[in-house]
Amino acid sequence: MSEKRAEQSGEERLIDRLFRPIAKHPGAFSLMDDAAAIAPPAGHDLILTVDAVISGVHFLPDDPADAVAKKALRVNLSDLAAKGAAPLGALLSLSVPENTGDDWLESFARGLGEDCNAFECPLLGGDMTRTPGALTISITALGSVPSGTMVRRRGARAGDLIVVTGTVGDAALGLRLRRAPDDSVMAKLDDAAKEHLRNRYLLPRPRLALAATLREHVSAAMDVSDGLVGDLAKLAAVSGVHASIDAARVPLSAAARAAVGADDRLIDTVLTGGDDYEIVATVPENRLEPFRAAATKTGNEVTTIGRIEAGEGTTVIGPGGHPIDLKQASFSHF
After folding, report:
1. CA distance 183 to 188
2. Kind and range of the H or E element at 145?
3. 236 phi and psi, to 5 degrees?
């Protein structure tokens, strides 16, 4: 071992071996400085977002390390997508318990590197520590939008239609399946349905390809991280409007439909469970068809689930046209 290597700390050796190969952007300076330097393209605004994921809270301790890394990055990319932004790069803060082995760290770095490449979101820097507490990963993602075009939560107006991408409820059902694989309801699902739900829980699908379409057509948007109903309520509140959605129109995968068919009480989980990382947006009625057509060209299907009205609050309409009384609108940490 060279003298230089001998002087390296354990943290420096891990960074050198696992994370420096990921940090390919010239502004990362090969992770050999105290900060990175990056600028958005000319005529663009810089968009910043940060999310942390914690073992036992956002993922299970035995979830694969590469999937944990990808989830940590993708939840931030989902925020960028909902703002109409393209990724520029990411900063990583990683706090690992004392008993975390090299195999876990190697798998984590491999998964992170794969997604940094796949989503063109280079690792720019960060920090790595040991902790006596739970494994914690915090990622700050940087993106850009043409100046003045960031899509905000605030902007929904009475008469707008409410749309959502993809399907809703899969991740929450997947978490239920991961926690209790012998659950009497989940046991009724076939293997393909179970695999679909597990994958949706493990690996969010950030709708980055939809970013430009959102900027062009929608009046407000946010990603669905804490549950469709609760997140839509946040959007409606900041916009000063009332949101009404029809539960029967909320798009479900075949797997989620099978689960709800086996136990209709699971509709609460579907509507409020969180971790979907789809996008809920409001669209002026005369923009709906152009928006839908443009979204389809990007490979993203959108479904109209309700309407924005004057007033305040959020209503979920169930069978017979009667409001559904949900136990809670969304997941909450507090």
Report:
1. 9
2. strand 136-146
3. -65, -40
> Could you tell me which residues come within 8 angstroms of residue 203 by beta carbon, excluding any fewer than 6 positions away?
67, 70, 71, 74
Q: What single DSSP character describes residue 248?
A: G
**Mean pLDDT for each consecutive 10-residue tract of the chain (334 residues)?**
51 86 93 93 97 93 97 98 98 95 96 98 95 96 98 98 98 94 91 97 97 98 96 97 97 97 94 95 98 97 98 93 79 50
| Complete domains list, the chain, with CATH | 3-146 (3.30.1330.10), 161-321 (3.90.650.10)
Q: Going edge to edge, which strands form the sheet with 44-54?
A: 44-54, 136-146, 86-97, 123-131
**DSSP letter for each residue of 100-133:** --HHHHHHHHHHHHHHHHHTT--EEEEEEEEESS
- Within a 10 A sphere around the Cβ of 53, how many other Cβ atoms? 19
* pTM, entire model: 0.93
Structure tokens of 36?
A: 């990175």
State how far the Cα of 56 lies from the Cα of 63, in Å rounded to an integer. 10
